[in-house]
Amino acid sequence: METELETIRAWFAYIAYARRGYLETLAKLPPAELARDRGASFPTLVDIFAHSQGALYFWMKSCATFPFPAQEDDSGGPPTIDVLRKDETYIQTQIQRVMAELTDANLSRTIFREKGRGSDHDCHIPVREALWHLVEEELQHRGELNALLWQIDVNAPVVSWVKWAHTVGRVKDPPS
Q: Rounded mean pLDDT of the chain?
């Protein structure tokens, strides 16, 4: 039986795998489609993806027991696909570091969440809950991207957990 820590690590490996497909799909779209306000949780497809990157960065930085190295700030306007790719590489590298150092005991450690944007009060959140929140956040925005892509007749890069698990050898087919 897999531990919760092993399951969390697997989920974040799956998320990283799936996110690459969304970047590839977005990169194929014309600039006008990327910049069009769709009236969703964030205006554009790029904004939605960038928001989910920001959530990963914020929560992983909070969960880490090491300082994140400085990241270049490209906040000179809407993010481009190249900026999203660069940021994704940076974020996924940091996530891999967090996952490698994470222990079962770390899952119960709490992180402070200050009242402000997205929080109506100060609180201490267990690392495990922050990580599971990120899984939920990722699935929410991935579903949103799927729906918006389907509205413009673009195949969303849907990769189910089961398909991914077969791809990486987590699930084995029975011997024939």
A: 92
DSSP state, 116? B
Of 6 and 172, more confident: 6
Q: Are 99 and 107 in contact (CB under 8 A)?
A: no
Residue 14's closest CA among 172, 163, 173, 171? 163
Residue 18 pLDDT grade (very low, low, confident, very high; cuts 50, 70, 90): very high
Question: Where do the structural domains in the chain lie, given as residue ranges?
Answer: 4-167
- Name the residue with higher pLDDT: 78 or 151: 151
Candidates 3.40.50.300, 1.20.120.450, 3.30.160.60, 3.90.850.10; CATH matching 4-167: 1.20.120.450
Sign of CA dihedral 12, 156, 74, 85: positive
How far is it, in rounded angstroms, from Cα 104 to Cα 3?
A: 9
- Burial grade of 58 (CB within 10 A; 0-12, 13-18, 19 or more): middle
Which tens digits make up the pLDDT trace of 143-166? Answer: 999 999 999 999 999 989 999 999
